[in-house]
């Protein structure tokens, strides 16, 4: 029998629909694979075996009874631990939430459950989604399946590593500055950051509310489109949710896979290439541009002059919002509670002791930075200026999209670095997101598609950005690139990853 864990979600869904396999068989195959290799990858913080199998049995029974089911019914999925799941631990990678079991589901989880996707478990991440390597998790490192000594990207390294290690066919990530796309790039997986407001934020443990966006992590562009259509759409419980239907994403992916991009205008962002980008990353990028041209696209260069300031603006806006969002972790409401070692047990001292013990260094660094940037004396100089830069970046995008249909760049400047290599250098860590952050500041959608291996034999990602609410363009261009690349490789990139276990 074929190894069920190697199938794309779309192919597995087809086999389930035709009753060639059952969801119990598929779910069990994934649970077996987790048992075999997750000891070395550590993508999961929590494995939800019993409940996943119960969901699978239920879906199989309903299918056998002839019930009309969602196209992805019975296909297992993993969920980043920053998304709340009723009855299942949700720690956001932090000690401060250790042992907290949410009493409700995020909207996207509700949709996943209603559609009958067995939830395999919760995936590892940088604490409160702050980081680019998953090394800031309070629960240990996740290892890149391409080289276990290397980082899987971050903050959603667990979701990307699970998909790359064939321990989940689909996963959910969140992207505040690149945490879906950058892990996608360094693990050879597809990651999509939808338009801000395109997928409900209800039930995400907030990092920076004006930037956070949940989205799909998968092995193929079509799988991302299928998952995006499932989790997206208007949600009255999220006041920033877009009150309109999604554009047709699956259709766009299928059309793109036919390989014809004639009439599509592609803009290469001058500021997001060249200096600071690894040579192999740049070479693969240029080769991919050639493939887009061969598919009929017109490729031009576009300048976005304010992108130079995006990283600096982001690292003021994000900490400012995070310092406010994280104020609720005070030892009174959720998870950890620590009493002061000596002296009176006042509310304020319990809060200080709890936050001191429960937050890691990166979280403390950003809370301090954020409260400083928001303080009365410095608000205008830091937070206020950063918001102005944000507007300039949005205008850069508006002007660029007046000239082209999509913008493209390498997703990340380098391939996966070694565990520990950048841990003591926060600025070096922040630079990983130089190409992904502008999209979050502007609220526009982006995809990372694996586009080959760099000179060091590690995967590289190609980023496509589109105007807000035009997520379908990501899928059309992404699928066209993917199909051209796979033709040239003779199969998916992940087939070239080393065998684990
Ligand atoms: N790496 C970026 C940061 O540390 C992005 C994080 C994210 O997208 N959650 O903030």
UniProtKB/TrEMBL annotation:
Residues 25-474 form the Amidase domain. Keywords: ATP-binding, Ligase, Nucleotide-binding, Protein biosynthesis, Transferase. One of its GO terms (biological process) is translation. SUPFAM superfamilies: Amidase signature (AS) enzymes. It catalyses: L-glutamyl-tRNA(Gln) + L-glutamine + ATP + H2O = L-glutaminyl-tRNA(Gln) + L-glutamate + ADP + phosphate + H(+). Pfam families: Amidase. The keyword Protein biosynthesis applies. The keyword Transcription does not apply. GO terms for molecular function: ATP binding; glutaminyl-tRNA synthase (glutamine-hydrolyzing) activity; transferase activity. Allows the formation of correctly charged Gln-tRNA(Gln) through the transamidation of misacylated Glu-tRNA(Gln) in organisms which lack glutaminyl-tRNA synthetase. The reaction takes place in the presence of glutamine and ATP through an activated gamma-phospho-Glu-tRNA(Gln). HAMAP family: GatA. NCBIfam families: gatA. Heterotrimer of A, B and C subunits. This is Glutamyl-tRNA(Gln) amidotransferase subunit A. It comes from Isoptericola sediminis.
């Amino acid at each position: 029998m074929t190894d069920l864990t190697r199938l794309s979600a779309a192919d597995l869904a087809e086999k389930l629909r035709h009753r060639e396999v059952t969801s119990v068989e598929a779910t069990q195959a994934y649970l077996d694979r987790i048992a075999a290799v997750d000891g070395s990858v550590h993508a999961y913080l929590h494995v939800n075996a019993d409940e996943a199998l119960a969901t699978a049995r239920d879906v199989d029974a309903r299918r056998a009874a002839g019930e009309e089911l969602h196209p992805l019914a019975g296909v297992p999925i993993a969920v980043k631990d920053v998304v709340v799941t009723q009855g299942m631990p949700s720690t956001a990678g932090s000690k401060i939430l250790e042992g907290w079991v949410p009493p409700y589901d995020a909207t996207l989880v509700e949709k996943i459950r209603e559609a009958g996707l067995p939830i395999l478990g919760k995936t590892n991440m940088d604490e409160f989604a702050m980081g680019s390597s998953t090394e800031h998790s309070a629960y240990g490192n996740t290892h890149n399946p391409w080289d276990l000594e290397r980082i899987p990207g971050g903050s959603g390294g667990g979701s990307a590593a699970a998909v790359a290690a064939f321990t989940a066919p689909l996963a959910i990530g969140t992207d505040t500055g690149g945490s879906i796309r950058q892990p996608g790039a360094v693990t050879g997986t597809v990651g999509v950051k939808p338009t801000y407001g395109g997928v409900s934020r209800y039930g995400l443990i907030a990092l920076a509310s004006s930037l956070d966006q949940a989205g799909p992590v998968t092995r193929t562009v079509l799988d991302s489109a299928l998952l995006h259509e499932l989790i997206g759409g208007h949600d009255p419980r999220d006041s920033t949710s877009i009150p309109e239907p999604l554009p047709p994403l699956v259709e766009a992916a299928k059309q793109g896979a036919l390989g014809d991009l004639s009439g599509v205008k592609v803009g290469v962002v001058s500021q997001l290439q060249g200096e600071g980008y690894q040579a192999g990353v740049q070479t693969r990028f240029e080769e991919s541009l050639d493939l887009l041209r061969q598919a009929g696209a017109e490729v031009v260069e576009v300048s976005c002059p304010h992108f130079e300031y995006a990283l600096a603006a982001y690292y003021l806006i994000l900490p400012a919002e995070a310092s406010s969002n994280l104020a609720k972790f005070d030892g009174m409401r959720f998870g950890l509670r620590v009493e002061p070692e000596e002296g009176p047990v006042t509310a304020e001292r319990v809060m200080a002791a709890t936050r001191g013990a429960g937050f890691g260094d990166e979280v403390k660094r950003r809370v301090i930075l954020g409260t400083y940037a928001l303080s009365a004396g410095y608000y205008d100089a830091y937070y206020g200026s950063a918001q102005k830069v944000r507007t300039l970046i949005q205008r850069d995008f508006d002007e660029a999209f007046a000239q082209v249909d999509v913008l493209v760049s390498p997703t990340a400047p380098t391939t996966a670095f070694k565990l520990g290599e950048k841990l003591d250098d926060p600025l070096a860590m922040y630079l990983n997101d130089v190409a992904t952050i502008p999209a979050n500041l502007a609220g526009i959608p982006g995809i990372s598609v694996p586009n080959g291996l760099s000179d060091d034999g590690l995967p590289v990602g190609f980023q496509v950005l589109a105007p807000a609410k035009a997520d379908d363009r990501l899928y059309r261009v992404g699928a066209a690139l993917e199909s051209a690349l796979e033709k040239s490789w003779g199969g998916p990139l992940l087939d070239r990853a080393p065998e684990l276990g």
